[in-house]
C-alpha cells in the first residue's frame, strides 16, 4: 500500500489517499488495508448466524403452535387473543367463564346458561304460583267447610 504527502494533504488521512498494490483506484485507509478473504469469511458467518436464527424462530413457532389449546366444543385452535385471555398467569381478576372454549362456543355457552337460569326462574315462579293457588283453594275449601258450622 502506498500514498504520497500530496494525496494526504489533498484528501486527508480519512479520504481516498491510499493506493493498494494490485488495485486500480485510491481508497480510504480502512478500505485499503481491509482483508477481502476475512470480509468474505465474516459475511459467511453472519449469513450462517441469520440462518440459524431463522431456524430457531421456526422451531419455536412450531413448538408454540403445538402447545396452542383447542376448543373443547368445536376443536378449533384458539386465536392468540383468546389464548392470552385465558392465560391466568397474567391476571386472575379477568378470569374467563369457560376457559376451555373458543370465543364463539363461549358466547353460545354463556347464552345457554343465561337461558337456563331464566327458564329456572320462570319454573320457580310457576311453582310458587301453583303452590299459592293450591293454598288458596285449600283455604277456600277449609273456609267453606268451616262456614257450614258457623251458621
UniProtKB/TrEMBL annotation:
<feature type="region of interest" description="Disordered">
    <location>
        <begin position="44"/>
        <end position="71"/>
    </location>
</feature>
<feature type="compositionally biased region" description="Basic and acidic residues">
    <location>
        <begin position="1"/>
        <end position="12"/>
    </location>
</feature>
<feature type="compositionally biased region" description="Basic and acidic residues">
    <location>
        <begin position="44"/>
        <end position="68"/>
    </location>
</feature>
<feature type="region of interest" description="Disordered">
    <location>
        <begin position="1"/>
        <end position="21"/>
    </location>
</feature>
<protein>
    <recommendedName>
        <fullName>HNH endonuclease</fullName>
    </recommendedName>
</protein>
<feature type="compositionally biased region" description="Basic and acidic residues">
    <location>
        <begin position="118"/>
        <end position="133"/>
    </location>
</feature>
<feature type="region of interest" description="Disordered">
    <location>
        <begin position="110"/>
        <end position="151"/>
    </location>
</feature>
Amino acid at each position: 500500500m502506498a500514498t504520497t504527502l500530496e494525496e494526504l494533504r489533498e484528501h486527508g488521512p480519512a479520504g481516498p489517499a491510499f493506493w493498494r498494490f494490485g488495485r486500480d483506484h485510491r481508497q480510504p485507509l480502512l478500505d485499503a488495508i481491509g482483508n477481502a478473504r476475512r470480509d468474505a469469511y465474516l459475511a459467511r458467518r453472519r449469513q450462517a448466524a441469520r440462518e440459524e436464527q431463522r431456524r430457531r424462530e421456526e422451531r419455536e413457532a412450531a413448538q408454540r403452535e403445538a402447545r396452542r389449546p383447542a376448543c373443547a366444543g368445536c376443536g378449533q385452535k384458539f386465536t392468540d387473543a383468546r389464548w392470552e385471555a385465558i392465560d391466568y398467569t397474567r391476571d386472575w381478576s379477568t378470569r374467563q367463564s369457560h376457559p376451555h372454549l373458543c370465543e364463539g362456543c363461549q358466547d353460545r355457552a354463556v347464552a345457554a346458561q343465561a337461558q337456563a337460569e331464566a327458564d329456572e326462574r320462570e319454573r320457580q315462579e310457576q311453582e310458587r304460583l301453583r303452590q299459592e293457588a293450591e293454598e288458596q283453594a285449600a283455604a277456600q275449601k277449609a273456609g267453606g267447610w268451616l262456614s257450614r258450622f258457623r251458621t
